[in-house]
Amino acid sequence: MGRVFVAGSINMDVVATADRHPKVGETVAGQAVHYFPGGKGANQAVAAAKLGAPSTLIGRLGADAFGQQLRQFLTAQGVDLALVKDTADVHTGTAVITIANADNTIVVVPGANALVSADDIAVPTLAKGDIAVSQFEIPQPTIVAFFKRARAAGATTILNPAPAIACGPELLDLVDILVLNETELGLLAQTELHDTDDPSRFVEAALRLPTASDKIICVTLGKRGVLAIVRGEPTLIAGRAVKAVDTTGAGDCFVGALAAQLARGETIGDALEYANAAASICVQRMGAAPSMPTAAEVATVLSS
Ligand code: RIB
After folding, report:
1. What is the pLDDT of residues 69-110, one digit of tens each?
2. In this structure, are residues 6 and 134 in contact, taking their beta carbons and an 8 Å threshold?
3. Residue nearest to atom 1 of ligand 1 (CA)
4. What pLDDT score does 84 carry?
5. 252 is known as an active-site residue
6. Burial of residue 198 (number of CB atoms within 10 Å: 0-12, 13-18, 19+)
7. pLDDT at 195
């Protein structure tokens, strides 16, 4: 069995719930405040670990109370933190999130995540069959260095270019599997896309990306499911009808589950179905990292 290595962010999510999102300049009364472990890297590593893959996180925490709480939580989820450094004089990454009607807005303050460096990713020895995963809440030169090492070792690389930030062909060339939503795809393909667009628009945009034909491109479409383009061939995997309470971390759940299944040697088609089912469980719970499902929970959904 391969292993999952995630180079990425670790945040404390400070979550306020409200009946509706405030407009710019407006104040609304909220209902509750929660402190949930989060950060795209941590969420993906937790998802992979809870689904049974050996999962190592590479990242940074501040030497503060949030950092200690996150370390404790991630250890309890079975994530290997040997490559997570505590960093003096900088705070732990923090996301300020508002949730209303299951939809969120997020402001991320990177703190220690901004200091994850090429030296940090130089330690793990990757091997063929391993899966290297990253996202855009750590510096892009670090991701380039990580994926170069992964490729040299024969590992598979998965990039989740979220949040949407421009990136050059040097990084995209190193990616085997791209998992992104319509906003991120629109930015990379330099076209305007909306979540209500016909899937053919997403296929057209995806195939315009550099080295698109060499990659698997997965466009996550929220409740519509996921559009996977494998060797130029599109397939739509329908979303499962569930009542979402909080979609924060659902994309991360999908990425972590996909990585875990590929590390087990599953085919891409089976891994995508599995990840789609896992994400449908995640959206039915509050919080990002604490919402990641177990393998038994995903098995129940897949057999229903
Ligand atoms: O993808 C969800 C994550 O984005 C949250 O956990 C938050 O920390 C932000 O990084």
Report:
1. 999 999 999 999 999 999 999 999 999 999 999 889 999 999
2. yes
3. 249
4. 98
5. yes
6. exposed
7. 86
Q: Which of 272, 251, 258, 278 is nearest to 195 (CA)?
A: 251
Q: Which residues pair with 97 in a beta bridge?
A: 15, 106
Looking at the domain that runs over 4-303, which CATH code has it been given? 3.40.1190.20
Ligand 1 lining (C-beta closer than 6 Å): 9, 11, 13, 38-40, 43, 95, 106, 108, 137, 248-249, 251-252, 288
Q: 123: closest CA among 41, 44, 5, 221?
A: 5
Both tokens of residue 183?
A: 């906003």
Residue with tokens 């499962």: 240
Beta strand residue intervals within the chain, DSSP E: 4-7, 11-18, 30-38, 55-62, 80-87, 93-100, 103-109, 131-135, 156-160, 177-181, 216-220, 225-230, 233-238
Q: What is the pLDDT of residue 213?
A: 82
The sign of the dihedral angle between the CA atoms of 65, 67, 73, 75 is negative
Dist. CA 207 → ligand 1 center (Å): 28
In this structure, the residue with its CA closest to atom 7 of ligand 1 is 39
**Mutation to probe ligand 1, out of 70, 179, 252 (largest number of atoms < 8 A from CB):** 252
- Selecting among 64, 120, 246, 252, the annotated active-site residue is 252
Q: For residue 251, how far is its CA from the centre of ligand 1 (angstroms)?
A: 10
Q: How far apart are CA 57 and CA 47, in angstroms?
A: 12
Task: Dig out the tokens for 102 from the structure.
Answer: 């299951």
- Sites in the chain below the pLDDT cut of 50: none
SS3 234: strand
Q: Whose CA is nearest to atom 10 of ligand 1?
A: 39
